[in-house]
Amino acid sequence: MLGYAAQGLHTDQGAANSGQLRDHLQRFEAALTDLAGTYRECGKAVGVGPVDALDTFLETLARDAAATQAALRLLLGQPGISSQMVDNVNASIHVRALLTDVFIVDEILKGSRRLGEGG
Fold this sequence. Notes:
- This protein is an all-alpha fold.
- It has one domain.
- Helices cover about 75% and strands about 0% of the residues.
- The chain is built from 6 helices and no strands.
- The protein has helices at about 1-5, 20-30, 35-45, 50-75, 85-90, 95-115.
- About 20% of the residues are buried.
């Protein structure tokens, strides 16, 4: 997304990487479907606790994922996607919150896995 945003294009129509951009955005949007559920299963598998705290945090992640999906769906629905549009979605507080949520859960999962392996 950052690479496309830096190109300064007014539209993706006719751009050499138009197909790649839309494919990337569609895969990003699809990956967010039940992301919290996937993390919940991973948390159970490695024994992350307390479970209620994880569940509460994953509710936040689910909201951030839904808001990001909404922005991606709006973007994908446009006949032409400008670099500025992509830059604005990338800078969105929802995308940034989602990425932070993912980093937090990822680190907790890694830490729990290491503890389960004996450190």
